[in-house]
């Protein structure tokens, strides 16, 4: 069995292939693009089905892992924090180095990270993106009045005080108004209509 360590980065990655005797059989720098990754797999001196590969969960790792698995490789995801601790405790190791990752996997000493299913990972990404845009919107709303005030201006004329209130407060006001308008109104008849006199 052969072990491939990939030091993955946004633009390029370093591949190091080891055999069971820790000999370096192949080393290359690969552009992080689907076409280049497939070409790099074809150029390996061994069959992909005989290769165990390890990568760290950095940006774009999931689609890279999918390509590697489709070629027949067995993919392992390293826990970057624990790998860094091991590298610091062993002076001969270099954290994040492709050969270090391959050597840890070869020795069955690799700390692996949990790999969520694709559907769960997609939902997590959507939640993170939504949280980012909510923070961005809040930042813009709070900084705009301050900027205009420093320049001697006022808030945007189209923004009413009601729109500036939190959504929860506006919802409560609307519900209260709806209840008030829906409640039956009591009518007061004049005293002479009842036939009673004082």
UniProtKB/TrEMBL annotation:
User: Basic residues bias located where?
Assistant: 166-176, 185-198
Record-annotated Transposase IS110-like N-terminal domain positions: 4-142
Tell me the Pfam families matching this sequence. Answer: DEDD_Tnp_IS110 (PF01548)
Where is the stretch described as Disordered?
Answer: 144-198
**Tell me, what is one Gene Ontology molecular-function annotation carried by this entry?**
DNA binding
One GO biological process this protein is involved in is:
DNA transposition
Checking InterPro entries in the record gives: Transp_IS110-like_N, Transpos_IS110
Q: Source organism's superkingdom? A: Bacteria
Identify the PANTHER family for this entry: TRANSPOSASE FOR INSERTION SEQUENCE ELEMENT IS1111A
Provide the protein name.
Answer: Transposase IS110-like N-terminal domain-containing protein
Can you name the source organism? Candidatus Lloydbacteria bacterium RIFCSPLOWO2_01_FULL_50_20
